Amino acid sequence: MIPRRSPRAGNPRPGFPGPFAWSLASLIVLGLAWWIAARELPDIILPGLGMTAAAVGRLLDEPETYAALGESLTTFACGLLIAAVLGSVLGLLAGLSEAARAALAPLLAILNAVPSVAWMGLAMIWFGLGAGPTVFLVVVTSAPILAAALQHAVRDRDPGFDELADAFDLPRAARLRHVTLPPLLSSARAALLAMAGLGWKLTVMGEFLTASRGLGEQLVVAKAHMQTDRVIAITVVLVCTWVLIEGGIRLLAGRQGLGIRSTRITSQLRPRATRPAGTDRPEQLPAPSQPAAIACQSVSLAHGECIIAEHLSFSAAPGSITAILGASGIGKSTLLRVLGGAAQPARGTIDRAPDTRTAWVFQEDRLLPWRSLEQNVALFAGVSSDVAQAQLAALGLGDAVHRLPTELSGGMRQRGALARGFLRDSGLLLLDEPFAGLDVRRRRALIHDLQRMQRERSRTIIFVTHDVDDALALADRALVLGGAPVARITAQLDLRHLGTDRALDDPALAAPRRALLTALLETPDALPGTQAHARAQSPSHPDTDPHH
To answer: Do residues 300 and 216 share a domain?
Structure first.
């Protein structure tokens, strides 16, 4: 989970010292404390600032310093590279397989529990002196850091994003780059920095203990001659080197996409359209597919071996809007998945054109938190960034296109999800409670947006809702699922005679509202056992959420 950034972050109050000022003040205080302490202590305990600065200068003038630094960096790089490979393999195996996790648990526990000095003693026996023991120490001590980070990142991945990629037919390469890897690489970046920091310290410690060539060996010599100023000078070089290493890792991680926010992307589903030379007109929306007709014939739905609905028969005409209502846990979302081809019916048939493409709007917005709003829409809808921005601007999100989902309100995120679904070139649009969790104002605004986009780009729309007013405001036809323990269609209402511009206080809506409410109130909730079984089979579907 990526934390939501505070709106105050990075924006200190006017006149209030910033981070750099505080860091500078801290260094000044430390330097002053050093100066005061050095005046009271002998040089062999704490040399003065001037004496230490002179020692640093002499150290930097010696060619042997750079040769030793090269040896230390080589040892460090070898150990870190091997640790990264080993940690990646162990972490991915433990995250992807329960059996592998159980088998690797004792090994990882041992690697974490054994003290570094014990590993070093064994390494000196096994490998003798030289760089070998130090490389071994870096590997066995830092590899578990990356292994643990990747294991948790793999196991904690949101399955809803995989379902999103499936629903929008995201190609394998695009799925890997934009859905699978970013959360793993974000965890790997933090782990790599921790590994590098620990590995650099262990490299110097290993050289110190084995007297192998490197800056650690120079520390041994300086310590033997009681040259405190030189010991501190070598420490300064080590600290400065680590600052450069850390900066290099952060820079490399950012360029390779290991950070959270990425650069501008174009659609992975189709080539980006180009504009004619010399024109500044915005790109036009791609021509939509024809609205698809779809029909259910005696369909039965099941969770595992348990039939939850049967004898479902209805049809949706091209360009129509159908609402499906029913109690929680009765199978509305399962029916929607079957209509979209994400699941198969237990019995019966779904008749639709074989080349019908489907777009989805889920109850949760399911926007990738590491991609901007525009990138989320362009990637999954299969349009260029310009088209995505134009549609988002039409929904009142023009100022938010480059912001991350965590920086947006719930209503803004849901409008982004609606734009993603409507821009996809599809004949069928399925919406799973798209207005759930929104207040009345945002709900009505989103319904108006949906009506406007339907007028501009007609689709066959089927949506699930608990709210009768949603159905009365949008639908040409409303179905009610009822009955327990096995659901059926208990009511079907044709609402086309109500027209398209409907006011919820219109007296003409009273009769259909009463009919829908009667059908819903006469429908008992799904049996607890059925809901529990449904949750066990499909934990990510809102229809099977006991709190829904």
So the answer is: no
